[in-house]
TrEMBL record:
It is found in: Cytoplasm. Its main location: cytoplasm. Its EC number is 1.16.1.8. SUPFAM superfamilies: Ferredoxin reductase-like, C-terminal NADP-linked domain, Flavoproteins, Riboflavin synthase domain-like. Pfam families: FAD_binding_1 (PF00667), Flavodoxin_1 (PF00258), NAD_binding_1 (PF00175). Its cofactor is FMN; FAD. This is Methionine synthase reductase.
């Protein structure tokens, strides 16, 4: 199709960590091959588009952050369209298709996309293509890839309708010709996060559906002993298949090495979420015994000399570096060990074909190479398929090149999920597995995402211990696996554990300095906004807390705060408090045995505990998990939630605990109200909406 006949559509993305943007860029790249022009913008750039006057189709790619919020880049947009004074036909002229990204591990799956979708419908906008909801829990590509495949047929149809109205028959013919090779299918795909509903087999000529993909047919012959696929080996049918691989992403970054003189930027310049505070770590306590399955630490920060303020239940973020040994190893593999302390200047490459190419906001204009790899890039990130595609071009060995092509191809989707995504493989693992792959520095900056600060729940009260902040965490462990032969600790928890080791073991390898004082380690933190996980405003309202393992953290702050209020306001009426706590072994990982003190002084009315791995000699075995304990107190749960309009808080693991608690509460409401399960689920949804059933959960 001639360039002057290309039809335009508006492409908007709202991203938190870069995934929605990367998918939008893939759509933009494929559009040209379909004879279309995608006018792509971040949804926050409201000065560059106007939905009120938009006549062309609109495609929106939007992620979800937190417990179901739209990403930060979409906040102004969402606020604007949620204006209650807008008429019901405000967007009646608008035709759109929306792709939502989310994680079904969390309660409000794809809620960012659903919020925008629902509001656009309320304002009269019409779908020209069914909404897709992609699930990061099972792999975004399982929905994203077929959704993009179907998008071109949907756009073709909407353009044909428009052009028939406009009488532009010559343009209709040109658009039809560009897509004539595609099989005729109904474009209204029923895409959901349920993998079983997806049919991903190639039917017809799949390469003609996605014209930007290339056909590759190179055979990789594995040795006879390699009958099972692995990260580096494939077996039939993948090893014998012609492959549909993504288009090569255009390079857009240029890196220039300078001298070794100067200072790196302050860490506060790397974040835009708020004010950072550099605070000392004044205490560290190991809460678990040495033989516990997980190691839990409590750290105390001194925030007295700052304006950092918090309420019990708040969260905050810790800025953490990548592991120093991994950074050195990466420099060595890249052949840049001697350049680590050199300052580099990062610029956008002149003449790049990348749409809207811009200097990455998380990369300083000038800093040392080591600073970028340590503080700016998530070198542990699971490589996306676009990155694998780019790495193909940096690989000299034919067998390794073929395997990387397979892993980023449509045919190798299950191998990608099994050997990269599910195995938590990172760039370092790939470079070890494919030694002939030698990527350039600019490629890393283009494809590795921003190193994200890690979020933790506050585990203290400013009333109870002014100027101090506690938080609790397990040291995350990633055991070795076939695709990743080395074990690792979590980026942040591993760093924190190493940082506070002198506080945990003050007599280990210490060299007394003159005067006997040692320097106190400091970390950079900032507040995490929009947290509703707080105590009831009315102290007379009863509440229940469910927090097994480190999920107990915010409730320690709740109880400290309540104790101080009881001491300061003896004339106030206080509602009853319940805490359901569980762990594996009573003698190994009962994190806060001082809970009994809160029970004795009346701050805590009821404490119910369970231990999942302890054996019992009782005739009737005690409940193992908190959701089982809750069921034993069904009448009390129903009374607090329904009759006394109390609050219910859940903190901890989403998949193995919070969902079980949710189910237990639904069953309790159903039983006590003598209602069916659907009605009970509606009641629980109303409690969530009223912010009386609150969760602070993680996967």
């Amino acid at each position: 199709m001639c360039c002057d006949l290309k039809r335009r559509f508006l492409l908007l993305y709202a991203t938190q960590k870069g995934q929605a943007k990367a998918i939008a860029e893939e759509i933009w790249q494929q559009a040209g091959a379909h004879g279309l022009e995608a006018d792509m913008h971040c949804i926050s750039e409201m000065d560059k588009y106007n939905l009120e006057t938009e006549k062309d189709p609109v495609v929106i790619v939007i992620s979800t952050t937190g417990t179901g919020d739209p990403p930060d880049t979409a906040r102004k947009f969402v606020k604007k369209i949620q204006d209650t004074t807008l008429p019901a036909d405000h967007f009646a002229h608008l035709q759109y298709g929306l792709l939502g990204l989310g994680d079904s591990e969390y309660t409000f799956f794809c809620n960012g996309g659903k919020t925008v979708d629902r509001r656009l419908q309320e304002l009269g906008a019409q779908h020209f293509y069914d909404t897709g909801l992609a699930d990061d829990c099972v792999g975004l590509e399982l929905v994203v890839d077929p959704w993009i495949d179907g998008l071109w047929l949907a756009l073709k149809e909407i353009f044909l309708l428009q052009e028939e109205k406009e009488g532009m028959s010559s343009v209709v013919d040109a658009v039809s010709n560009s897509l004539s090779a595609a099989p005729h299918v109904v474009h209204e795909l029923n895409l959901s996060s349920e993998v079983q509903n997806l049919k991903l087999e190639d039917k017809g000529v799949r390469s003609s559906d996605v014209l930007s993909q290339k056909l590759v047919d190179i055979s990789l012959v594995a040795s006879a002993r390699d009958t099972e696929p692995s990260l580096v080996y494939s077996v039939p049918p993948v090893s014998h298949s012609a492959l549909n691989i993504p288009a090569l992403p255009p390079e857009y970054i240029e890196v220039q090495f300078q001298d070794t003189h100067g200072e790196n930027p302050h860490l506060s310049s790397l974040i835009s979420e708020g004010t950072t505070f550099e605070v000392p770590v004044t205490k560290a306590v190991q809460l678990t015994r040495e033989d516990a399955i997980k190691t839990a630490l409590l750290l105390e920060l001194d925030v007295a000399d700052t304006v950092f303020d918090y309420q019990p239940g708040d969260a905050f973020c810790v800025m953490c570096p990548n592991n120093v040994n991994e950074v050195e190893e990466l420099l060595q593999i890249l052949g840049l060990s001697e350049k680590g302390e050199y300052f580099v200047c990062v610029k956008v490459k002149q003449g790049t074909k990348k749409k809207g190419a811009a200097h990455p906001q998380h990369i300083p204009e000038r800093s040392t190479l080591k600073f970028i790899l340590t503080w700016c890039l998530e070198i542990r990130a699971i490589p996306k398929k676009a990155f694998l595609r780019a790495l193909v071009e940096c690989t000299s060995d034919a067998g390794e090149k073929r395997r990387l092509q397979e892993l980023c191809s449509r045919q190798g989707a299950s191998d990608y999920t099994r050997f990269i995504r599910d195995s938590n493989v990172c760039l370092l693992d790939l470079l070890h597995a494919f030694p002939s792959c030698k990527p350039s520095l600019n490629l890393l900056i283009e494809h590795l995402p921003k190193l994200q600060a890690r979020s933790y729940s506050v585990s203290s009260s400013n009333l109870y211990q002014p100027g101090k902040l506690w938080f609790v965490f397990n040291i995350v462990e990633f055991p070795a696996c076939p695709a990743r032969p080395v074990s690792r600790k979590g980026v942040c928890t591993g760093w924190l554990a190493e940082l506070v080791d002198p506080l945990l073991h003050p007599n280990k390898n210490t060299l007394e300095t003159k005067g006997g004082s040692s320097s106190t380690e400091k970390i950079s933190i900032f507040a995490r906004p929009n947290n509703t996980f707080h105590l009831p405003a009315d102290p007379s309202v009863p509440f229940m807390m469910v927090g097994p393992g480190t999920g107990i953290a915010p409730f320690i702050g709740f109880l400290q705060h309540r104790q101080m209020l009881r001491e300061e306001h003896t004339d106030w009426k206080f509602g009853e408090t319940w805490l359901f706590f569980g762990c594996r072994h009573q003698d190994r990982d009962y994190l806060f045995k001082q809970l009994k003190c809160f029970l004795e002084n009346g701050t805590l009315t009821h404490l119910k505990v369970c231990f999942s791995r302890d054996s019992s000699t009782a005739e009737v075995a005690p409940p193992k998990y908190v959701q089982d304990v809750i069921r034993l107190y069904a009448k009390e749960v129903a009374r607090v939630l329904l009759k006394e309009r109390g609050y219910f808080y859940v903190c901890g693991d989403k998949k193995h605990m919070a969902d079980g608690v949710n189910d237990a509460v639904v069953d309790i409401l159903s039983m006590e109200m003598e209602a069916d399960k659907l009605e009970a689920m509606k009641i629980l949804a109303m409690l969530r909406e009223a912010k009386r059933y609150l969760q602070d959960v993680w996967s």
